[in-house]
């Protein structure tokens, strides 16, 4: 696993919730500004848990408001091959 | 008619239970008999504390304690005030403060886990160790207020609907009629208990109908909607309730791998209510889960509001959807014309008026209109609430007493057609341009579909004494968009004016400019004020001269 694969997965996942193209999802802009709401934020926690096997707080998307910040936060917790 | 409280107390069953499914923990259970015993103890304690006739604010997480406390209040003749448990954020605490102030509640009850968190509110747990009073409490006065139902509403001020013991009982009896010949056996769902549909439609209905009740928390189901369907399948639930959002979210988030072993053939009643019902949502849900036994006839839309306790009309169990298609032009003109054209607008019927009388009236004159004509929906009957707590002016304006009885002005627009009630929008948001009725949500949808970078929108009318009403659209352009704001504006304007044939003034703004309520309803009135006060940061705007003049005058005079 590289940080880049986590980042790319987050971009694709968030784009899916918001029905955006992945090119429209910047990793340095706040998720709220992209239109992420509380229901999407809950879904993101669940999807991270399912895909990456780490438990995250429901407030993840507000505590770490950009994709880059989430990557920095999560990368050390995710097992590397 | 025996009231709800007296009836439940008289014969709580030991073979019916309430179950709370908490993820990762064993299910918590109480039989109806145990629930009654605990509620009696709470009532005895509340009576000892002198709470009869006084409001008690109930701040509980999802679980069984809420129902014990709520019933305890009703037994003791205290006025229950269910409210959402505040999160740590200050805005939510402010909301609770406003509820406490508005309701006049001096006692706040919560569970062990939240006493410390709610320290500022002097919240406490109920005490069940107080000696239970011997003998039965006095009979219930049907006109006494049982609880206050606060509606979220889009106004800053909370509004507590006074639901009486009589209106609650009547509404619960209405559910029995909707159920038909076969009484409901197991009710399951996840709507919060401070929501009228969660309180009356799930919890109190189960007690009144002597049915099992299976509860989940809203958070658990939003995170993984499969939990809702799993609970229905595992517990053989035959009746569930959710807003349109719930059915849409389940359809979108539940994967094929989750469907293994799921059997929804037990479900005969899946009520959709509390927000506009979209036929596309119901179709997609029925298609998605048909392979695991879900029957389309189980989808039964309803119409209701807290001012009528909960339900006004609801499709009877087993009847399924009534969908009729009308021409878009006839809906805009306010006299519906059915069509079989593919270009028509399909609408879902919300059931036939029965014990609650329904009238559709011209909102300007109050005169009843013919079937098929759109007007304001008015409702009369014993389920009507007493009024708004502490607000006689709002009560008089909304609950209108005339020679033909007491009628609730719902503020909702709709029409009767082939005996079914159809709901088409909200009165106060309606935009009327040269006699044509335009619904803001239709304009917003058209704009959203006009360009891939179109986010939320808010459409509303602004009125000029001379030139009449004008349509204004405040439209968000997604922040990540690379589009030129001028080109984006033109594309949206083209689509909207093409579809509706009226001039539209547009202000293009950044994402997260449009305000909405916690339940996701666009706050069009608020956006209208911001617009008229010239308080929007526009990326681009195209205003008709009349509208531009209105803004200049209005913003100028308000400073």
TrEMBL record, chain A:
InterPro entries: ACP-like_sf, PKS_PP-bd, PP-bd_ACP, Ppantetheine_attach_site
Stretches assigned to coiled coil: none
UniProt keyword terms in alphabetical order: Phosphopantetheine, Phosphoprotein
Domain Carrier: residue ranges: 1-78
Keyword field contains Acetylation: no
Recorded GO MF terms: phosphopantetheine binding
Pfam families: PP-binding
Protein name: Acyl carrier protein
Automatic annotation (TrEMBL), chain B:
PROSITE patterns: AMP_BINDING
SUPFAM superfamilies documented for this protein: Acetyl-CoA synthetase-like (SSF56801)
Keyword terms: Fatty acid metabolism, Ligase, Lipid metabolism
Residue stretches making up the AMP-dependent synthetase/ligase domain: 23-389
GO MF annotations in UniProt: adenylyltransferase activity; ligase activity
Family (UniProt): Belongs to the ATP-dependent AMP-binding enzyme family.
Stated name of the protein: Acyl-CoA synthetase (AMP-forming)/AMP-acid ligase II
